[in-house]
Design a protein that fits this description.
The protein has 435 residues and is mainly alpha-helical. Among the domains are: 46 residues; 154 residues, Cytochrome Bc1 Complex, Chain D, domain 2; 92 residues, Cytochrome c-like domain (Cytochrome Bc1 Complex, Chain D, domain 2), CATH 1.10.760. It has 20 helices and 6 strands. Helix 9 crosses helix 13 and helix 18 crosses helix 20.
């Protein structure tokens, strides 16, 4: 269809060039015929949209699969029309079921798309119906352009600036990235939700259940929690393909150079995807390689796509009742390193070390993070002046450090130096004397 319109446009341009000074009556006739042709094309497209073809095909499938004679007879009343779901409270308006007609029809199990039954979201393994498509629509989980009536426009992959393109098609479990919009409890440790197993595995990995025992918030900030050593991830899932490609280097991505592949391959080999780029002042990523396989990396991508602000009204959010939990008041208790009694006996310098989360990156006597140097013997390796300068301007004494500036007071720095100089390995227990 586009080719025909292009031919008509070229013919009109050539007609104006050739006939304007020779015979305007022929030119006007050409223009009139072009207008008529465009009117016919537009009318034909309006009368024969692809969604009508899908509905006719669906009707044929239903007639083949339906064995009840009464129901087969009633299929003769099947209306060929746009089907729209409108939920003002949710802000949902989508016409996906104009083509995906079998989402809630068990007869369409195993049918080809777009007619396939959708048990994964509609009915859980326990048999509980939790998602009524007639009320919430499809775009709330799958995203995309709900008001569109063509496949390409509805999926919105080709629209660079569309804020919510459909989640990557053909990638198993990607819709679990949308679960967090209504099930906020998934972000908490110990959460459980049937149908969101991939997202839960990824959240567990992000919370420290990984070979390096590191939490993502050790470097990244997520929803106001975490550090600022690495990019904030709170709104990762909101960026469009165009926005993402404009802020990320796709040069080292193998295969399809899009947001999904960049994220997946960054988990598999961070330094390969984000190497140093001196020409643009970009340093090599500090993210460690977790040596994860492709399945684990894919789960992490699902989790990353879930990073977006939820605009789902409170009444649609699931909030399980939680038992009252005792919350520790001290940072040391959160770290799990000291009891309150032990904490009270610590020096001022060690309390500052704990308060500012230095242990997240540094380890002391085997406790703490592994992103930065072990500080057990730092007092014997570094002079006091060096340490003070490292607190005020870290990169002036360690060019490649990713340690942020904490704006310590002079007294705090002095207390920290005293503490760091006091750190020595735990003395070994005396050997037992043989008699």
């Amino acid at each position: 269809m586009g080719t025909i319109v292009a031919v008509i446009a070229i013919a009109n341009i050539l007609g104006v060039i050739v006939l304007w000074t020779r015979d305007k009556s022929v030119l006007y006739a050409l223009l009139s015929l072009s207008i008529l042709a465009l009117f016919v094309i537009t009318t034909y497209r309006d009368l024969t949209p692809e969604w009508k073809d899908y509905q006719r095909e669906y009707l044929k499938l239903m007639i083949e699969k339906e064995t009840d004679p009464v129901r087969r007879r009633d299929l003769g009343k099947f209306d060929i029309k746009i089907r729209q779901i409108w939920n003002r409270e949710l802000g949902v308006a989508d016409r996906c079921t104009s083509c995906h007609l079998g989402v809630d029809n068990p007869l369409m199990k195993g049918a080809p798309q777009p007619f396939r039954f959708h048990p994964e979201a509609h009915v859980l393994e326990s048999g509980t119906i939790i998602h009524d498509f007639n009320k919430i629509g499809c775009v709330i989980c799958h995203r995309g352009q709900g008001l569109a009536t063509t496949k390409t426009d509805a999926h919105a992959h080709h629209i660079p600036h569309w804020e919510t393109p459909m989640l990557p098609v053909g990638k198993m479990g990607m819709t679990q990235a949308a679960c967090v919009q209504c099930h906020e409890e998934l972000r908490k440790k110990g959460a459980d939700l049937e149908g969101a197993e991939m997202a839960l595995d990824a959240i567990g990995f992000a919370n420290g259940d990984n070979p390096l025992k590191l939490e993502c918030v050790s470097c990244h900030t997520i929803n106001g929690v975490g550090e600022v050593v690495a990019p904030e991830l709170s709104n990762f899932g909101e960026s469009s393909e165009h926005e993402f490609e404009g802020t990320h280097n796709m040069k080292y991505v193998v295969g399809e150079k899009d947001k999904y592949e960049w994220t997946l391959q960054h988990f598999l080999d961070p330094k390969k995807i984000s190497p140093a780029d001196p020409a643009h002042g970009v340093e090599e990523t500090i993210m460690p390689n977790f040596e994860m396989d492709k399945e684990a990396a894919h789960k992490m991508v699902v989790w990353m796509y879930s990073m977006k602000e939820s605009n789902v009204p409170v009444k649609y959010r699931y909030r399980p009742k939680e038992e009252d939990k005792k919350r520790g008041k001290l940072q040391s208790e959160i770290a799990g390193m000291y009891t309150p009694e032990e904490y009270a006996a610590l020096s001022d310098g060690e309390k500052i070390f704990l308060k500012y989360n230095c242990w997240v990156c540094h380890s002391v006597r085997g406790k703490g993070g592994k992103l930065a140097p072990d500080l057990t013997n730092v007092g014997s390796r570094r002079k006091e002046d060096w340490m003070l300068k490292h607190f005020t301007e870290p990169r002036s004494v360690s060019q490649k450090t990713f340690m942020p500036k904490f704006n310590f007071t002079e007294q705090q720095m002095e207390e920290l130096v005293v503490y760091l100089k006091s750190i020595t390995p735990t003395p070994a227990a005396p050997a037992e004397v043989k008699k």
